Amino acid sequence: MKSTVNHPLLNSKNVTLDLLRLDQIHPLISGNKWYKLKYNIDDALAKNKNTLLSFGGAYSNHLHALAYMGKMLSLKTIGIVRGECVKNDTLNDCEAWGMKLIFISREEYKNKSNIDFLRKIITSFSDAYIIPEGGANQWGFLGCKEILSQTDKAEYDVFCCSVGTSITFAGIIDSLPSSKIAYGFCAMKNGEYLQNTIKEYTPNSNYQLITQYHFGGFAKQNQQLLTFMKSFQSVNNIELDFVYDAKMLFGIFDLIKTTNLFENKKIFSYSHRWATRK
Prior knowledge:
By secondary structure, the chain is an alpha/beta fold. It is about 40% helix and about 20% strand. The protein is built from 11 helices and 10 strands.
């Protein structure tokens, strides 16, 4: 479940880049979603909850994975969706798998972590087990600490991770020995604020957030990124998603090209591309 990336640039700088193929875990619950959700669902079942409720955007791979896991386990699922009511393949799948979708305004969605807002949700859905957006809680963190459990960490110099909510990155940081360093590539603008979230989950400081490869913001792309994705796939036969994986790998390649940060290093990263829906 590991692939070594091929590219002349890597050879010229004596860099080895291995990818853990988390995209191969499951065709519909691939990537870090499996790790983020499994302990949340275990906790829900232990509390005899038969409804799972969570949050996400209209193209949320988190809601997509949650809906499918609910179907597999015969659990009801509810998705609180940011923005206007839209129809796309992601949400169509969610509904086909039994998820009830509730659309709220983008302004209201900003309050999803607010105590009063959550109280209203709890009042409306008293039997539901609430999972934060992206599985970003202690159970998601616990699961993400296991991502490198089958990896010989001593074999690598640095570890690279794409960053959304930062729970995956925090779990990886916490699982590393202090002699190793982790680099997190933020998928959105102004990702510096995630430092606070990371510190909530791990006391370790052997990491650095890389914030300049967001390509305009979360889920944004341009021709430069798309060209990189096409070139990478043609050489390595690995399809990337433009939201996370492609931005991280573009950043790694750019830093190899323009700095000596990764020169003569062995890098471990992962691909968590899911079945991208439109």
